[in-house]
Amino acid sequence: MQRVLIVEDSKMVQQVLRHLAAQWLDIDVDFAWSLREAATLIKKHRYTVALVDLTLPDAPNGEVVKLMMKSAIPTVVLTSAIDEYKRLQMIEMGVIDYVLKDNRDSYLYAIKLLAQLLRNQGSKVLVADDSKTSRNLMKQMLEQLLYQVEEAADGEQALQMLSSDNSIKLLLTDYAMPKMDGFELAKAIRHRRGRDELAIIGISGSGSQSLSAKFIKYGANDFLIKPFMPEEFHCRVMQTMEQLNMIGQIKDAANRDYLTSLYNRRYFYQQAQQSIQHCKPEQTSVLAMLDIDYFKQINDTYGHQAGDEVLVLLSSLLQHHFPECLIARIGGEEFALMLNVSDLSQAVELMDEFRFYVSNHLFVFASQPIAVSVSIGICGIEGPSLETAMQHADIALYDAKGQGRNQVAVFENKSQCIEPV
């Protein structure tokens, strides 16, 4: 479980950090005013990362940093001033980064840096370089940033690893490598994985400006020249991964329903076809269309805010009951699910169990109980297109409503309603 420690003796600065942490860090954050208090907290909890003030009343010479390093806690330092001696001292101690306390943006940068470090934990990075010394150096610095680091000694090995493991999110590749150089590697992998899936940083010992331009044109996000300072390396990597995360957030927002956070109709159509294609031979793809009964009546009786709350709660129930399924809100009070099951009868049983659960679940808004039930139409997908399956499931749903609602109907040339329990 992730947890953050922030050590700061200024009441005003700590207030700012508390406010920013509440906005950006969706985990437990502990605050300490002194070295002594920090030491007490470290004995009680295991911390993923720490943000500490370099100078504290009971630790004027950076003793708090030494405590963090001794406790093996990745640390970002806040400082009012920095000189070359302090910079080198912190690098030697193994500090991830330092942030000057000169304005509010500095504190925002520090908190966003912590947020990125938390996202980094367990994320895979691939370092491709024929020099073992160079690979070891970059691996050490990346592990400081909490990444899980993989290594490749040449471009061909790197391409093979990237092709077989989509969980790798960042590639750092040297230019001059045997078998396949960094340019060709970047070009080859971009044919398979876009900028929204994989970030690439090109690296070279040559200072030629044409190298950086060529790397960018071949698909890299950024470029570094050896030898690089640890701070530059950390900043380039962190900014590149922040950009990848932002692209992911934008893409996800475009694919999600704003109210329920389920996928939207457009994304469902895109992914459902892939789900059908990847269905195992021993399984059957089944489409289920679900509609809330008398939803207009809920809005008219309790208000639209209550209706929205019902939509959100029902979405949560769908995700809880069908965690492995593709689920979408396709419009108003209507939802769609794609199930890969052993046969059609299993899908019918699962959906009828869910229907029964909803009809007996207590929906409450403003202390008022709201009776909610759903009608469900099911269609097995064997030969017809997805568009045809949607039409057939919709016909079954229409029949379920026509037969009295709170029922499951199956389309088999014509729909057949399942008697509710």
Poorly predicted sequence stretches spanning 5 or more consecutive residues: none
Strand order in the sheet with the most strands: 12-13-11-16-17-18
Architecture of the largest domain, according to CATH?
A: 2-Layer Sandwich
Shape: flat
Based on CA atoms alone, the radius of gyration comes out at 27 Å
How many helical stretches? 15
Q: Could you tell me the CATH topology label of the largest domain.
A: Alpha-Beta Plaits
Q: Between the first and last Cα atoms, what is the distance in angstroms?
A: 42 Å
The structural class is alpha/beta
Biggest sheet statistics: 6 strands, mixed
CATH superfamily of the largest domain: Reverse transcriptase/Diguanylate cyclase domain
Estimated share of beta-strand residues: 15-25%
Indicate the CATH class of the largest domain. Answer: Alpha Beta
Which percent range fits the helix content?
A: 40-55%
Number of strands: 18
Mean pLDDT: 90
Keywords: Phosphoprotein
InterPro entries: CheY-like_superfamily, Diguanylate_Cyclase, GGDEF_dom, Nucleotide_cyclase, Rev_trsase/Diguanyl_cyclase, Sig_transdc_resp-reg_receiver
EC number: 2.7.7.65
GO biological process, one term: cell adhesion involved in single-species biofilm formation
